[in-house]
Amino acid sequence: MIPETAALAYLGVTLLDILMTRGPDAYFRIVNSIAKANPTPQDIDEMILKAKNPDQYILS
Amino acid sequence: MKKNTGALYVFGFFALLALGCIGVLMLQGCAGTGEPIKDPILTNAYRTLNGLDTAYDIAWGSFVQLYKDGLVKGETMTSAQAMAWKYYNAWSKAAKTLKAYAAGTASPDQLQAALDLARAGLDELKAYLKEQAGDNLKVL
Asked: Measuring CA to CA, which residue among A36, A15, A57, A29 is closest to residue B54?
């Protein structure tokens, strides 16, 4: 019971951290991507399009 | 005062627990279509790539912010950028291999090798960024 409780608390911290620091987009992205099954080629294309290259972080 | 602090900790713990539960419910809700996984290799690889990208986004985004705040030197940034590109190229190649695998033109071994390279690239990048930025760096 204790490891499950600790894991839930850890998941809570991680999700809250993502939500606070990276915004709702990153939050929903990770939740959706973990839950996603049987991705289509469109899903894969979307994932590739959303990924930012290192220079884009510097320019934004 | 001491009693209040203790109560605050207990409240904080339960608040985090509730957030964790919400996260689990959301995950179940998103996956709740009951659709059976047709190809576990495809699904796992897709989840792995998304997980890698999120971890990279947090670590690299945090490092770039430190650079913009003047806490990282120019030459350190140049080396880090080269490593970030190395990882990004490995990740992009793995994503393309996943697409090829979905189309039936790449083997599971090729996909696994591409994923291993991307994972190794991220590990290397994170280790370097952590070495340079220490506790200031945010990582997943």
From this structure: A29
* Contacts with B102 from chain A: Cβ below 8 Å: 39-41, 44
Q: What is the Cα–Cα distance from B41 to A1, expressed in whole angstroms?
A: 31
DSSP string, chain B: -HHHHHHHHHHHHHHHHHHHHHHHHHHHHHTTT-PPPS-HHHHHHHHHHHHHHHHHHHHHHHHHHHHHTT-S-HHHHHHHHHHHHHHHHHHHHHHHHHHHHHTT-S-HHHHHHHHHHHHHHHHHHHHHHHHHHGGGS---
B72: Cβ–Cβ under 8 A, 6 or more apart, which residues?
Answer: B63, B66, B80, B132, B133
- CB contacts < 8 A (A, B): 134
Q: Using one digit for the tens of pLDDT, what is the confidence trace for B36-82?
A: 778 999 999 998 999 899 889 989 999 999 999 999 999 999 999 99
Domains: count for chain A: 1
The ipTM of this complex is 0.72
Q: Which residues of B touch A8 (CB under 8 A)?
A: 17, 20-21, 23-24
Q: Which domain holds residue A25?
A: 2-59
| pLDDT tens digit sequence for B43-54 | 999 989 998 998
C-alpha closest to that of B83 among B55, B67, B60, B53 = B60
